[in-house]
């Protein structure tokens, strides 16, 4: 870890850096899943879902940046390399053979729900560690992911 004037104990910072990097790879994977759906959606709801998936991925891109920067601010590093994402993501692989609007909507909803669950767990872990800043970051992510899940589920 790099030196910082952050007054969180070293063991707390180390644990939060690991937690942040674990959710970082999930967020990057989620963003790529959303782009996969955005690029390949077909069907009667094409325009609405094409635009919705792109809007959600743009919000996830902000989460990616916020999560990565928090890890670095705590004296760690952000590991968002493709190898880290491939090895570390907790999300199921996206079904690349899916082409219709119902299949993409369900696949996206499943991944948003899984990511939301992981983020809620991260809120609890950060709270228990005494890192209110990281807990707050994940709380904001959770709130938006829940809303985005609702928007996608409305198409199912």
Report on this model:
- The protein is mostly helical.
- It has one domain: Ferritin, CATH 1.20.1260.
- The protein contains 5 helices and no strands.
- Helix 2 packs antiparallel against helix 5.
- It is elongated, with a radius of gyration of 16 Å.
- The model has no long low-confidence stretch (mean pLDDT 95).
Question: Layout of SSEs?
Answer:
Layout: H1 10-40, H2 46-73, H3 82-88, H4 101-129, H5 132-153
CATH architecture classification name:
Up-down Bundle
Q: Would you identify the CATH H-level superfamily?
A: Ferritin, core subunit, four-helix bundle
Overall structural class, as computed from helix and strand content, comes to mainly alpha
Low-pLDDT ranges: none
Indicate the proportion of strand residues. Answer: under 5%
CATH topology: Ferritin
State the CATH class. Mainly Alpha
Query: How many structural domains in the coordinates?
Result: 1
Reported for the largest beta sheet, the result is:
none
Q: Tell me roughly what share of residues is in helical segments.
A: over 70%
Q: What distance separates the N and C termini?
A: 45 Å
Shape: elongated
Record field, number of beta strands: 0
């Amino acid at each position: 870890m790099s030196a910082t004037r952050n007054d969180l104990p070293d063991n707390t910072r180390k644990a939060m850096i690991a937690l942040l990097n674990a959710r970082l790879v999930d967020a990057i994977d989620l963003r790529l899943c959303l782009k996969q759906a955005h690029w390949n959606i077909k069907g009667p709801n094409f325009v609405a879902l094409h635009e919705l998936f792109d809007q959600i991925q743009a919000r996830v891109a902000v989460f990616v940046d916020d999560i990565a920067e928090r890890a670095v601010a705590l004296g760690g590093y952000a590991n968002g390399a493709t190898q880290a994402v491939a090895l570390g993501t907790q999300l199921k692989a996206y079904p690349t053979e899916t082409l219709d609007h119902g299949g993409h909507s369900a696949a996206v909803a499943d991944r948003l729900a899984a990511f939301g669950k992981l983020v809620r767990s991260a809120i609890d872990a950060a709270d228990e560690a005494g890192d209110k800043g990281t807990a707050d970051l994940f709380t904001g992510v959770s709130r938006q992911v829940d809303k985005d899940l609702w928007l996608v589920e409305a198409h199912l």
